[in-house]
Amino acid sequence: MSPQSQNTGRRPELRHDPVANRWVIFSPARAKRPSDFKSKSPQNSNPGDNSSCPFCIGNEHECAPEIFRVPSDPNDPNWKLRVIENLYPALNRNIEGPCEEKEDMGVPARAISGFGFHDVVIENPVHSVHLCDMEARDIGQVLLAYKKRIQQIASVESIKYVQVFKNHGASAGASMSHSHSQILALPIIPSAVSDRFEGMNEYFKKTGKCSLCEVQAKELLIDESTHFISIVPFAATYPFEMWIIPRAHSSHFHEFDCEKMVELGGLLKLMLRKMSLQLNNPPFNFMIQTSPLQVKESELFYAHWFLQIVPQLSGAGGFEMATGCYINPVFPEDAAKVMREVNLPVEG
Hints:
GO terms for molecular function: UDP-glucose:hexose-1-phosphate uridylyltransferase activity; zinc ion binding. InterPro entries: ADP-glucose_phosphorylase, GalP_UDPtransf1, GalP_Utransf_N, HIT-like_sf. This protein is an alpha+beta fold and 348 residues long. It has helices at residues 3-7, 136-153, 191-207, 261-278, 318-323, 332-340; strands at 13-17, 22-26, 66-70, 81-85, 101-102, 111-112, 117-122, 161-168, 180-186, 221-224, 228-231, 242-246, 284-289, 306-311, 326-328. A hairpin with a 3-residue loop joins strand 10 (221-224) and strand 11 (228-231). The longest helix has 18 residues, at 136-153.
């Protein structure tokens, strides 16, 4: 059966995502079979000459200043993880004074100084080791490093939001092949975060419940552990997008229990391995979608953090850029079924 004839019985559908507060178009006529939706540019290895990589053990002197490492002894050469300043930061941590607005530029717009923090988390000292190759407890240490650094940054009054993200593969935005992730602390709340916050608020006002606490659909479930579930969201923006959600209501990632980070590391590893096996090891991004640092007590009832994983299988086109409405060729329940078919245990 051809992909075209297989999809003729299923009609396009528009679904509203109450978390991101946007519509997504599901158009199965544009897709292959979900099981054939594989990356054309897999990331099979970490290329390059390891000796010239500044993130490798022994090359610490080539990096920007270190913030902290694990273990914590700065004189111990056998580190497992380092958090350093980004050598080419998007924002400047050395700008003194508050972020003052400028409205005298002759245009109807606003601007503030580019104060902020841009850090790199080197997840492993070995060049050839990817995050999904690491033990659950070591991935847990990476997550704890995120938590520690956000807690440090949160004391800076002018910082409003902290975004943790990982780019894996050149087409996903990674400029270095050595496994790493980034932390970017901003003096503003980005519009996508505001939209997500407002979407959660709208659902709460209508139902009196948190939109993520209410996720129950078995057809969307990929796997689960004691304190987390992994799903394909009902209105997934991207093909085979996955979310890991804490079962217990929690507004801020950096306030989550340390004891549960190894468990989260195990489920994250499982999702990355499933994605690699089913989708031909694609480039990907993951993002920790947390709440703004300063929120009202009433807002904590509907704000719920989650970890979003997006394999890079299709690019955004003009329609998506113009409207903010994405077209996804794979229905979420089909994507979840494909991911469930990979029979791997949860570690941790």
